[in-house]
């Protein structure tokens, strides 16, 4: 497993930007605290990235959002805050304990009516959504087990429509995408997904590299053609 190594200066700049520009509300701040108190790992997106997700939901005019990887609901709350009245977010989480914390955080943020948390392996949940004939999703955020990133990308297309926006987190992974031996668990899955983004004719994509409290990483942004 790779070690993320943020520098003090990256963190200081991130804090500065978060305080000056991003302004996470008190429900988001509580979501981070309750997750730590419950012993969940601090692997949620940064406030800067969460706000980006919210803005992307708004910019794309999304009414239906699919999230793969809930944790304590931090990114869930950001995206649900970007949804219009009547909008819906379905989020997939493997661990019941994470889902319980997320449910409490989402309810605390006053967003329970917009958010459905589905517990189980995401690949099973995605299949179930298709079997149920779920309406197409307008926006998908992928942030779970990296081994399955390419499959999640394929599901995003199948459960989406032309024009669906897909964001995939952690696609640089401290540069392990250049050297998968650094993390043989996660890097191969990330590389496969990136190759698919570049080659699959159903997608048009790019990647932004980032630094900050989560180290050196990046997110991919793709549009379903
Ligand atoms: N998106 C969250 C945020 O920014 O607040 C962080 C998600 S965390 C990086 C990844 C989550 O995915 C964890 O809670 C983990 O339990 C969950 N997860 C891992 N493998 C999964 C799977 N196969 N199906 C569903 N969830 C999974």
Total E-strand runs: 7
Structural domains: how many: 1
Name of the level-1 CATH class: Alpha Beta
Strand order within the widest sheet? Answer: 3-2-1-4-5-7-6
Corresponding CATH architecture:
3-Layer(aba) Sandwich
Label the overall shape.
globular
Which stretches of 5+ consecutive residues score pLDDT under 50?
A: none
Structural class: alpha/beta
The largest β sheet comes out as: 7 strands, mixed
Please name the fourth-level CATH homologous superfamily. Answer: Vaccinia Virus protein VP39
**Small molecules (ligands, ions, cofactors) in the structure:** S-adenosylmethionine
Quote the distance from N terminus to C terminus: 34 Å
CATH structural fold name: Rossmann fold
Give the overall pLDDT as a whole number: 97
Order of helices and strands: HHHEHEHEHEHEHEE
Number of helices: 8
Proportion of helical residues: 40-55%
Q: What percentage of amino acids are in beta strands?
A: 15-25%
Compute the CA-based radius of gyration: 16 Å
């Amino acid at each position: 497993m790779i070690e993320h190594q943020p520098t003090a200066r990256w963190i200081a700049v991130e804090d500065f930007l978060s305080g000056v520009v991003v302004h996470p509300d008190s429900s988001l701040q509580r979501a981070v605290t309750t997750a730590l108190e419950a012993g969940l790992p601090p692997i949620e997106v940064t406030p800067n990235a969460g706000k980006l997700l919210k803005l992307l939901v708004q910019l794309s005019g999304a009414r239906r959002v699919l999230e793969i990887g809930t944790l304590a609901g931090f990114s869930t709350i950001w995206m649900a805050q970007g949804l219009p009245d009547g909008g819906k977010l379905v989020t997939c989480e493997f661990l019941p304990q994470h889902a319980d914390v997320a449910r409490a955080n989402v309810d605390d943020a006053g967003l329970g009516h917009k958010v459905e948390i589905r517990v189980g392996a995401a690949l099973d949940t995605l299949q179930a959504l298709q079997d149920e004939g779920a309406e197409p999703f307008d926006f998908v955020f992928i942030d779970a087990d990296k081994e399955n990133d390419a499959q999640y990308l394929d599901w995003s297309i199948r459960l989406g429509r032309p024009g669906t926006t897909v964001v995939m987190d952690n696609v640089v992974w401290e540069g392990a995408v250049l050297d998968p031996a650094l993390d043989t668990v996660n890097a191969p899955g990330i590389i496969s997904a990136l190759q698919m983004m570049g080659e699959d004719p159903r997608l048009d994509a790019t990647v932004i590299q980032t630094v900050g409290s989560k180290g050196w990483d990046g997110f991919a942004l793709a549009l379903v053609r």
